[in-house]
Amino acid sequence: MIKTIFCFGLVVLAVLVLLPFALVAFFLSFFGLQKPMKVFVYRLVQGWARTMIPAAGCTVTVTGRENIPKKGGVCFISNHCGYFDIILLLAFCGRPFGFMAKKELLYLPFINLWIFLLGGLFIDRKNIRKAVPIISKGIKRIKAGGGMIIFPEGTRSKGRGLLPFHQGSIKLATQAGAVIVPVAIEGSYEVFEKTKRVAGVPIKVAFLESIDTAKMQQEEKKQVLCDNIYSAIKQELA
Fold it and tell me: In this predicted model, what pLDDT tens digit does every residue of 147-189 receive, in sequence order?
């Protein structure tokens, strides 16, 4: 219980204490400092994420970081076990990224600001018409050399294994002609959600061989690519 309280205290620290530094960086980005300030905010949160891992008592084995391109647009496509996945990706991706967040999070004070500052885009999953311009923003961000993360299962698996990918879930990556880096995460559900108490468990994070969609035929970018990514992640988890 003490560990759980301590870890939630670190979450509050990030949400409240570090937020002013991130907001200052955000405003400075309007004065020709957009790229360095984006990196600053990411490094700020990355440091917090790397503190959370030992605080929770977890040991993390990371492989394949050489598969992450250092420059250019990239899209990480990952399975989604639990809440701790975002912390792991912040800690080990090594570069700033955005992600699609459900619109309900837009109404959570402080959390909504952090999602925005980290490059998150709020999307209404039930309204395709409203989702299209948000997805377009993600595509533009990748084309401009940024990074995005997609969880194609659409929800956390919560210990149920790898769930089916939603059809069209990787369109953000293919329409941007991005380099895709599949990610396999194992063990993160057991950190908190399984028992509702923080537990120090072994976790594995594998960044798999990258795929350059810009070099692929249009036919390959459809279901075949999605199936191949699914199979690669499933094989790594097995």
Answer: 999 898 887 888 788 898 887 778 888 888 889 999 999 999 9
Q: What backbone torsions phi and psi does residue 92 show, to the nearest 5 degrees? A: -120, -5
Kindly state the tokens that stand for 15: 């949400």
> In angstroms, rounded to a whole number, what is the distance separating the alpha carbons of residues 217 and 58?
42
What's the whole-model pTM score? 0.89
Report the CATH fold assignment for 58-237: Glycerol-3-phosphate (1)-acyltransferase (3.40.1130)
Query: CA–CA separation, 100 vs 153, rounded Å?
Result: 13
C-alpha closest to that of 127 among 156, 152, 104: 104
Cα-trace Rg, the chain: 17
* Integer Cα distance of 99 and 149 in angstroms: 5
Task: State the chain's maximal CA–CA distance in angstroms.
Answer: 54
CA 106 to chain centre: 17
Residue boundaries of the structural domains of the chain = 58-237
β-bridge mates for residue 15, sequence order: none
**Alpha-helical regions (H) of the chain:** 2-12, 19-28, 34-55, 84-92, 111-117, 128-143, 171-176, 223-237
Name the residue with tokens 């990196």. Answer: 39
> Sign of torsion, CA 67 81 204 41?
positive
